[in-house]
Design a protein that fits this description.
The chain has about 400 residues and is an alpha/beta fold. Helix content is about 40%, strand content about 20%. The chain has 13 helices and 14 strands.
Amino acid sequence: MKRLGRPPYSIDGLVEGPQLSEMIHLVGHEIDNPLTAIISMAAVIERFAPTNDSPEFRTEKLPSYSRAISNEAWRISHLVEKVVMTLSRRELSPSPCDLVGTLQAALTSVQEDSTLAGVPIGFRTPGGSAIVSAEPYQLSFLLKELLRNALTAAHAANNAKVHLSIDAGDEWVALTIANDKIEASSRELSDLFLPFVSETALPNRAGLGLTAAWAVAERLGGELELSEEADEAGIHFSTRLRLRPAQGSHRSKSSSAVDAPEAPDEPTSPVAPVILIVEDEPTVASAIKKILELGLSTVSPDCRCLSGTECLEFLRSGKPASAIFCDVNLKDTNGFAIFQQITESFPQLAARFAFLTGDSRREETIRRLNRTGRPYLMKPFEPGELIELAKSLALRPVQPMPPKSTKQG
């Protein structure tokens, strides 16, 4: 038995119909309104921080409130982005985009969520690239939403495997995301495209994932379809996205299957600028990543949040990097040590390095930063400053050379 589900009406129908007011109501009032939480916690800080000098308040409660405010602010940011992506009527400026490379970058981003990182992935791609006509940022957003939806369902089904496959044809380039062995949906599949419809125990937390993805797919001139098929192994749920190939692109005739996307043995220029963000604080790293993805949306950067050790391992593997933003104070090392090792082992990348620091009051830190000759940003910095610096550093991709050998003796 196989069931198919397509959007019940056009996005224009959603925007012009009664569902729009319901969607706005749910966003504003029924999702544990994050604005209310932020105001409440900020009020506590404003009231007690000036006079409460107790170690417990300063070292435990105040940092806890700050982290909670940051998390709630990110919830607002994600909700607003999805609403904008759903309702936007801005005229697009499509360009040729590599679907394979964008999908790999989107998967890397989604798997930064530790709860989704353990979901096994099968990945089948054309022998060559699959070039589609799209806006890079909107394509990246669309793929992340589809992947997040699939990996979340797989995690709930005891980490059932997710299969990704891309097929390139003359008229369409199709991406299929298939979940193995999950429970059958009790709803019409077409309903799953509607805002806040979900099979989860907390449907008011489902958000606008497939709704926003459907809107972007339609805006790009593509199609989105759900299917559910039962066999002796269980229920297989698939999301199929079809996009128009870019003019002048050629159809690939062969494909290859692997357990997960892997980097090539020999480094090649990245499809998009690869920006390494070396920052221990997850909320700060996420904020920097988001600013860069939005500010450099025309080139769809592949931003990766790493520790100091992970950054050096990444470079030693021979993978290319276009820019490196590194915090001065790190748990496993420090930014000056990272810069020194990059200068010695990957000198061509030293000119792509910038420091970040919140230690603006220590004169010794400023002197050391100035001695490096590299640019640096003081926290908190303006998003525009970060974006302009990223543009100057990542003007073109740079391939790290193999590390220099050191003689023993």
